[in-house]
């Protein structure tokens, strides 16, 4: 801890423990919008799709000839990863081809964690105050919520390696007999299988399933999705110092990535040594709750004291719970239809179903509902896939007011939505509107991404070209 504190002191940061929050990161000087508060390379990371293990690229890929699991884009990346992959390759090569197919990104992340620890213990890979196994050990694990969080990170997969399920449950309950009553049996099976597969691959007698499972819970709480400049997911990484920063629905900083390096940038002025957040019940009810039955009212609904209805806090109109339940059931049915393989493979059918969902959601949810925004985002992506640019622009414009409500004024997701809107407007010949959208995008993304990144430079050049085109059109008139 002392070594970490000293390393953070050089970054103008310090770690303190707060009741109910645990370890928290504080600033020891003022930070301003766009400042990098902290940067960190991952302790371990893996791509979540067919990408280079070194740089997450998708070009010129070649598979490791021995393990047939890992990909590289060229010799430099293969050499940079060789010390770690040499051990991983040996372990994976011991598996038969069927079991090798069950090695998911989450399993590989765990394997690399143990292998990196071994290499650091042997001094083959150096360790520092901000890059060592003890930092990972100190991360918080939350067993009770592991399945929910893993699911949100797309890390849950099915295994068929263990056929005796009763043995699995007995084994798992032996290790985690405390506080496990709330977890369903199938979830316990899945969790035990993941830990057992890692144990099977490593074949290290000094580690057990309890220890491995505990680290899976640490991953669930602390692993981050590594994204590109447009926040498209590339992989998963563990950044133990970055993980000390507490999450907030009203953040004063944002996590972005430069390759695999994690960068935390200030979104606003952050005074020295301050931390504070609040919960807004009204805002939560608007973003996640139901709309008033009076379509001209912009009020939000809260459950009545008897629990049988929801009442508008603006006009007082009551909405019956059964009515809400009926619409919600219709939406659920359509969502299930949309998730079927036949619908996923047909963009036109998917758009049709999601437009029906959108229509029902406009009756059920507040206009600024996150659920409604997500549906419109899905429709937007499908329209862009089909190159229906004009309709895509209309949906992009529909999402922006909700983005403005959900996210702070300076947030990468809001900036990228303006960027998408600006590109569509420019392509469709509405140069003046494109300039407005691209200007807003630049104003936000130069803070969140930095002014020197290739993406922001390209965006800035796009804005310059749009302005030049607008000037030329005015002269031509």
From TrEMBL:
Stated name of the protein: Histone-lysine N-methyltransferase
Listed GO MF terms: zinc ion binding
SUPFAM superfamilies (alphabetical): SET domain, TPR-like
PANTHER family for the chain: EG:BACR7C10.4 PROTEIN, HISTONE-LYSINE N-METHYLTRANSFERASE SMYD
InterPro entries noted in UniProt: H3K4_H4K5_MeTrfase, SET_dom, SET_dom_sf, TPR-like_helical_dom_sf, Znf_MYND
Keyword annotations from UniProtKB, A to Z: Membrane, Metal-binding, Transmembrane, Transmembrane helix, Zinc, Zinc-finger
Species classification: Eukaryota, Viridiplantae, Streptophyta, Embryophyta, Tracheophyta
Transmembrane stretches, start-end: 133-150
